[in-house]
Amino acid sequence: MRLIDSHCHFDAAAFDADRAQAHARALAAGVAAQVVPAVDAAGWPKLKAVCAEFAGAYPAYGLHPMFLASHRQAHLHELRDWIARERPVAVGECGLDHFVQGLDHDAQLHYFDAQLHLAREFDLPVIVHARRAVDAVIAAIRGIGGLRGVVHSFSGSAEQAAQLHKLGFLLGIGGPVTYERANRLRGLVAAMPLDQLLLETDAPDQPGVDQRGERNEPAYLTRVLEVVAELRGMPRGSGCRDVRECGAVVRTLRLVAAHSRGDARRSVHTSCVISRAQAIHGLLARHPGRAPLPVGLHRCLSNISSTLPTAANANAPVTWVAAPRPAPQSSFSASSLPSCGRTPQTLPSACG
Question: Which residues contact 299 (CB under 8 A, 6 or more apart)?
Fold first, then answer.
């Protein structure tokens, strides 16, 4: 089974000294790929370069709420251009943060709403940050409609999780679930619908209990998988192999790669593997581009799909899924939004 880290800031400065070694450790652990979300416009070029250099790294472009001090109205225009040109796998990281003091709520919502419109316009999933703001995030998503994506590092209630599920959103589960004191989160993971789970690290942040106080990295995703399996009553094993052999249900990304002359675009599908991943893989052939969904599989698989500009894992097994179609594209453009009229406060350079 190939695991894919659905949320990793692999472009962060914390990886500058040993990014190649961290990438090698991830591959050795079975983490074949990772989605790398942006935090601000200044970081988009570096993120693009990192994803181009390391196989299995896929970019998402957006404006993170914790970096509000860096954002400008012009960045929304630039973001639209980046999405149109680079064809990322998602829009994000974006969202709302009502935990950090000094973050203007109206300004956050301005940028979040604009990025949700862009996601719908380009038919891309959204990678959402929601800290102490899940209800506000749900309201924003519901207000626009026709969206899909993931609320990463979910820490809300079961009721909020159910509302997000109905809206077509997955829940990112990472290092925090490995802490025994995280009672509400662990209870939620044990009971939530399997097709709503998405594994992540949020590296270099949010290390698990085994790496407390240290830098997090994609290789540690296997521990998150083991804990999720244990919480759902699967036999405890000594490693990821035991979890696989007992038929774990794992949310992964399956990268569909098929070269075409003069066009390096690829499709990426986020899928939930129901029952044995290997059994699912045995049912599916490798399909180029956006091949038709095999009959009947749409009932047990759900996805986030998009197009991306770089090739990787051209021979990887493919799990195809049915994409919920959004409402007709909006006529939104970044220029249609008024300026916030506020000066964001200076914030710490940390991403959650």
Answer: none
